[in-house]
Amino acid sequence: MRRFRNNIGLQTCGNDSAGVIRQSETTSSPGRAVMVRQAHHPERSRGTTPQVSENKRGFTIVELLTVMSIIIILIGILVPSLNMVRRYATDVKQRAQFHSIEAALELFKNEFEGYPDSAYKQYELDEGGSSYPGAARLCEAMVGGDFLGFHPSSRFRCDGAGSLTDLKNLYVETAWPGAGEWENNLRSRKGPYLQLERANAYKLSDIYGGLVTGCLASKIVLCDEYARVKNISTGKKIGMPVLYYKANTSGVIHDSNTAYLPVDGDNKDQFYNYLDNHYLVGFGMPWNPPTAQGGTPAHPMFTEPKRFYESTKNEKITISDGRPYRADSYILISAGFDGQYGTPDDIFNFIKE
Predict the structure, then answer these.
(1) Whether 326 contacts 246, CB under 8 Å
(2) Nearest-angstrom CA–CA distance, 17 and 246
(3) Which helix (H) or strand (E) holds 134?
(4) Which of 104, 266, 286, 294 to pair with 110, CA 20 to 30 A apart?
(5) Rounded CA gap, 351 and 342, in Å?
(6) Could you tell me which residues come within 8 angstroms of residue 146 by beta carbon, excluding any fewer than 6 positions away?
(7) What is the pLDDT of residue 263?
């Protein structure tokens, strides 16, 4: 019997880039197995999983801090700019409101041959002895004391009476119980001269709360566009009252010198009387109210009335006695963005040059 020799051959992977060797089992004769090392070729493999790189790289702390710093710098630049844009837009709305009030006042003037009075006596007392500031008188003239129009019999009294003898309130329905009396009252009304949707009118008690007492608490005023105040009744944001000053066309001076400030309310020499709204300004800032009317903290215009004359003085006219803007008509004042009367951001119904 010829005997065959079993040869074990080793095959190296000279051309195999992976350099992987596997064993395979071959037989040269029955009963005997020969282990042959053969080269492993990846392209011939079946079902193998490709290797995934584990070298994933994230952001470093320095990179994150750099990006955050850039974002913070951009916010610091953009936020003030956005606030300035918002403030400018509100200023534009405020001037538009003044334009609407001016148009309404012209209608009133044509109907009654003059602008509504802003005050009669010291601290804007009406003929009944109650305080009735120019801001409230303006609102009554524009929309009436109840938003139903101005009553021609009004004498601009805080109690709403139409005469010294007949003290029935012209703007309270229950004061006219007779048959047809209230209906006749409504028929005689004029206006409203200002659209109610644009009037922005609210009760003084909604703005100042318990500081306002008596008949003045139910009086309404036109508020500006700055929404600085929280309405006590509804919680809605509303503006500060628009101050109204009617010009004394026979005036001869407009001087902030305290020697010329009107003290008796007659306003014989000054074109404008700061006292027309002094009592109202004395209620202070609703978000930080004084403990009593005229207490502290107070508006700068209340503690320094000369601010009213300085801010309304026409600098183009250089005579010693001075001249105001709008010397022949009236002045409207908004407390502006900060909600304080007598500060540089106050808005007027004229453009300073």
Answers:
(1) no
(2) 101
(3) helix 134-143
(4) 266
(5) 16
(6) 171, 172
(7) 63
pLDDT at position 264 is: 57
Return the structure tokens found at 331.
Answer: 């002045």
What residue has token string 């070298």? 55
181's enclosing H/E stretch is helix 181-187
The residue ranges of the chain whose pLDDT is under 70 are 1-57, 120-124, 128, 258-260, 262-267
In whole angstroms, what is the distance from residue 222 CA to residue 239 CA? 9
Note if the pTM is more than 0.85: no
DSSP-assigned beta bridge partners for residue 331: 245
The contacts of residue 217 (CB under 8 Å, 6+ apart) are 203, 204, 205
**C-alpha span between 93 and 72 (Å, rounded):** 32
Gap between the Cα atoms of 264 and 275, Å rounded: 9
**Pairwise CA distance, residues 217 & 203, whole Å:** 7
CB 138 within 8 A of CB 181: no
- Alpha-carbon distance of 113 to 30, in angstroms, equals 134
What's the CA gap between 252 and 270, in Å, rounded?
A: 6
Placement of tokens 């109204």 in the chain: 244
Given this model, what pLDDT does residue 64 score?
A: 85
Report how far residue 322's alpha carbon sits from residue 310's, in angstroms, rounded to the nearest whole number.
10
CA distance to 93, 101, 213, 227, 293, per residue, from 87 (Å)? 10, 21, 34, 12, 30
Whether omega before 262 lies within 30 degrees of 0, making that bond cis, reads no
| CA geometry: angle 186, 192, 198, nearest 5 deg | 140
Name every residue whose Cβ is closer than 8 Å to that of residue 55 and which is 6 or more positions away in sequence: none
Q: In what order do the strands lie in the sheet with 330-334?
A: 243-246, 330-334, 347-348
pLDDT at 20: 40
The pLDDT assigned to 56 comes to 61
Omega cis (within 30) before 177 = no
Q: Report the distance separating Cα 108 and Cα 139, nearest Å.
A: 12
How confident is the model over 100-134, as pLDDT tens digits? 999 999 999 999 999 999 985 655 677 767 789 99
pLDDT tens, 166-186? Answer: 889 999 999 998 999 999 999
Q: Hey, what are 35's tokens?
A: 């282990």
